[in-house]
Amino acid sequence: MNHPEPRRPPGASTSVVLDAIRRTGTISRVGLTRATGLTGATVSTVVRRLLDDDLVVEIGRAESTGGKPRTLLELNQSARYAVGAHLDHSGITYAVTNLAGAPVARMTRPGPATTEPAQVLERMAREIDLLITGIGVDRSKVLGLGLVSPGPLTSTNGMNPTPPSMRSWEDFPLDTELERLTGLPVLLDNDATASAIGEYWSGGTSGETTFAALYMGTGIGAGFLLDGVAYRGASGNAGEIGHTSLNIDGPVCWCGMRGCVEVLAGPAAVVDAAWADPRVARAAGLDRLPDGASIAMQFAAIARSSRNGVVGARQILERSARYLAVAAHTVVNLLDVRLLVLTGASFAAASHIYVPAVRELLEQSFFARTSHAVDVRLSHAADTAPAIGGAAMVLQSELVPQRTAPLTTLDHAGSVRSELGSLSH
Ligand SMILES: [Zn+2]
Q: Which top CATH class is 12-78+400-423?
């Protein structure tokens, strides 16, 4: 395999300009000075460099009110690519995205089952190679690989403590091994945070730079972006909303707490409840699924039967949704966000139950509801969000690594929004 040449990370002003171009879609140089607060001279220099690096292209001219028409700039979407891989017990999903975070290829392969981690990673390296070759992308344009796992993450970059379905992965050095096998720089993050970054990078937040993503795949978590920057906590484990307790006398959860949202109402609890009711189990076809069918597969079957009008299946999901709505309520009360994105394969499968349940509870009881509403929406790529997010993580870390300065970014966001309006992008 050819290893891509190491790249110089962009400087702070380059990051700011590139991010403004990405967020607005199309923008003029004058617009960039307004959106970034940089001087015209700096913007000119940075744009020249971005054009030379082929990261940005000029795309004709905007109408002008008098004066000289302005040349518009946009991202050169096919200038760079990134790979995301979501490693979950239920399957391994890959995505390749272009520079704008839009997926250009997706692929799902069987999960690790009982195979040893080392062999699974070798298979993943082969599959990633096939995926890149298959779409004919020049390998030197691939910035890296974002590896997303259910977490929790530790400083050794393994998973510890480990979700019950992935015990053999405890403390395995996922990132260094995959880096060696693929020759690509590897970043590691948990599924909820990666999904949030993917949503932001691919434009799913409509320009909102502070928002939360509530994730439900096999487990439940939350990812936060604050002023466009992911909040990861001290060890990359922020947002474990699935492990907040709703009943301190409830059943013991694998994390050590009692009565967690996940143990009371997560996908595994839904599957258990369906098996406990023979009519629902039969109607959902749980007994006809292959042996060892993952929790995610069984959950999806229950969701399908609910959509098909099986009342028992619907009731089980509605009970779960009441708990998930409380988790959403907690997230929104903590962060006071205007936007909550529901994402992950299980929300995608049963969105008809969970989206209205979350909306209803927030409308009734979100603390700051008299100040502003909360827009609750299902991710447009909820099914494959972690893989797309993995790729977006790489794009963000390579191209806008130094975006901080939260106070001034607020002003930038305002200017960017007005630029959006004037160009009716
Ligand atoms: Zn727990």
A: mainly alpha
